[in-house]
Design a protein that fits this description.
alpha+beta; Formiminotransferase-cyclodeaminase, Chain B, domain 1; Alpha-Beta Plaits; 6-stranded mixed sheet; 4-stranded antiparallel sheet
Length: 297
């Protein structure tokens, strides 16, 4: 079993999100979760299945995203370079990262062939080590990528060496499990939030395996520390919450709420409760193993 955690650049239009969800449900796949955020204007679709089934679902999703999403009209706080922005494949039961690399390469080639969208491989599937990290691909946003694409070291793995006019590029990759976890800080102090994100980031001596960005969410009336926990054995969800809360307090700020984006393996939660994490909903729907068991009995 392989998991795909596809990120699409649409989190507001319910009709478009419904079409994306329908596309991901190729024969043999099970759609486990959809997380849509209007401030980020982004939806995360989590689905599972065999190599062939998940690959088919990802291709169908890419085709629908190209039809339905126009980056020239897109507005949202989250960095993005594509309509179907990120397509990671993750090994679950009986699968390996090598299996996921093979799927990523097969699907990447098919996306370019069927849509004309250039595809860059990332993560464990990367063909160029220097651009394996998504942050490298996104540096400077679409304008920065437009200036680099086709230059030395920046030929796409598949497709034309130019941005698709409405769909940008697609980043297709393979990676281990990670947890996307957001903590909202009361108020709109973006500079304070950026300082917290910097201090919690593993690359700056913070928590191991933590990537973090700060966003101002005007509609929600808060600032958000948006994290990827890439090594949940080193940093669990409760550990990330505790560190952010402590840093917020040191800046004279307070945590208002937190949310798990999509699903998390049970071990990442360490038995924490929704009230302890100030979650915006209950914790049970976010447990990966339970959702897989329910969808794939």
């Amino acid at each position: 079993m392989i998991e795909c955690v596809a990120n699409a650049s649409e989190g507001r239009d319910a009709a478009v999100i419904a079409r994306l969800a329908e596309a991901a449900q190729a024969p043999g796949t099970r759609l486990l979760d959809i997380h849509s955020d209007p401030d980020h204007n982004r939806s995360v679709l989590t689905f599972v299945g065999s190599e062939d089934a998940v690959g088919s679902g990802a291709l169908r999703l890419a085709i629908e995203a190209a039809r339905s999403i126009d980056l020239r009209r897109h507005r949202g706080v989250h960095p993005r370079t594509g309509a179907l922005d990120v397509v990671p494949f993750v090994p679950l039961e009986g699968a390996t990262l090598e299996d996921c690399v093979a799927v990523a390469r097969r699907v990447g080639a098919a996306i370019a062939r069927e849509t004309g969208i250039p595809v860059f491989l990332y993560g464990r599937a990367a063909s160029v080590e220097a651009r394996a990290a998504l942050s490298v691909l996104r540096r400077g946003g679409l304008d920065g990528l437009a200036a680099r694409i086709g230059g030395p070291g920046w030929l796409p793995d598949y497709g034309p060496a130019r941005l698709h006019p409405s769909a940008g590029v697609a980043a297709v990759g393979a990676r281990p499990l990670l947890v996307a976890y957001n903590v909202c800080i009361a108020g709109l102090d973006l500079e304070g939030a950026r300082a917290i994100a910097r201090d919690v980031r593993g690359a700056h001596g913070g928590l191991p395996g933590v990537q973090a960005l700060a966003f101002r969410l005007d509609e929600a009336g808060c600032v958000q520390i948006s994290m990827n926990l890439t090594d949940v054995a080193a940093t669990s969800v409760p550990a990330a919450f505790e560190r952010v809360a402590r840093l917020a307090e040191s800046h004279g700020l307070r945590v208002a709420s937190s949310e798990i984006v999509g699903l998390a393996p049970r071990r990442a939660l360490c038995g924490a409760t929704a009230s302890e994490l100030l979650l915006t909903d209950t914790i049970e729907p976010h447990v990966l193993e339970d959702r897989v068991e329910t969808a794939c009995p």
